[in-house]
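tl;dr need the bound structure. longer version: we got a ligand (guanosine-5'-diphosphate) that a collaborator sent over and nobodys looked at where it sits. i said id run it. heres the input, straight from their email, havent touched it
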Amino acid sequence: MEKTLVIFKPSAMERGCVGQILARFQQKGLIISGIKMMWLDEAILREHYSHLVEKPFFPHLLKAMMASPVIVVCLAGLDVVNVVRMMTGSTNGREAQPGTIRGDFAMSNQENIIHASSTAEEAVVEIGRFFKPEEIYEWKPEYMDFIYSSL
Ligand code: GDP
């Protein structure tokens, strides 16, 4: 099954809403294939946000992403990249639809609770950036047959 990367940013860690958001993903029927806590450093953030390094807000983004440890999660499921992006909502929390994670938890462009991979290709690269191969588990809970039974 397809996989995607989610990062619980320092805004989620500080506000103590990691459990609530992880519960949304599990309730939806997504499988946790990998999960760990880590501090991000400037080198990995420059790689991860390479499309933003020239932006004036980049130094602020760097500082915000290193304000606490983060939790990185690899989720698996059918069309999981698109499903998680839909559940995440627009970048700016003030513009994100209510019902999405950013729409329900964020009021900021920068402090927007989670990162989620944008495309399946990007997800492969991002999972490789944050996880060692042996940290990703290929498994499927038994009850998944009731969620994915139309396959
Ligand atoms: P995403 O894929 O929705 O996370 O959006 P981007 O890849 O465009 O941006 C990456 C992250 O940079 C966002 O999630 C925000 O945390 C941050 N960011 C994006 N735009 C802005 C901005 O205009 N100002 C600030 N301060 N941060 C931003």
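gonna send this back to them w/ a short note. The pocket of guanosine-5'-diphosphate is lined by residues 49, 52, 57, 60-61, 91, 109-110, 112, 115, 118 (CB under 6 Å).
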